[in-house]
Amino acid sequence: MKTLLLFLALHPSDTTVKKQRAFSAGLEGAAAVSVGNQIVSVNVGGPNLRLKLSPKWAVGVCAVPSLFIYKGKAEPKLGLAPRLDYGKWLLQAPGFYMAKTEKWAWTFGLGYKFM
Q1: Residue 52: beta bridge partners?
Q2: DSSP character string of the chain
Q3: Its domain of life (predicted)?
Q4: Could you tell me which of 50, 56, 77 has the C-alpha nearest to residue 66?
């Protein structure tokens, strides 16, 4: 009897069980469009380092895999971008290295995070 009383005393009174979903699907990442001097790039979120300033605000730098369109010609390119996040929206300024001119081409754009 003492064992049963000890068990009841140690057993938590809240017996609610949280249901867990067996499967969940969704998009994770970000998509953005940025423009510059004769340049349009369609960007998707790549690896990034971010500093969360508050639940909604963050700043960081990211690698930006992009479809880079320059003077009407499209090619895949990887950019490097500083970025500012607010909630699900982001501002970024991707820079792309131009091998022919040995200079960086900068664009500025707006994106949306799917998380």
Answers
A1: 58
A2: -HHHHHHHHHS-S--------S------EEEEEEEETTEEEEEE---EEEEESSSSEEEEEEEEEEEEEETTEEEEEEEEEEEEEETTEEEE--EEEETTTTEEEE-EEEEEEE-
A3: Bacteria
A4: 77
CATH class of 27-114: mainly beta
11: its two tokens? 């057993």
Query: Who's near 105: CB < 8 A, 6+ residues apart?
Result: 36, 37, 39, 70, 95, 96, 98
CB–CB of 87/96 below 8 Å? no
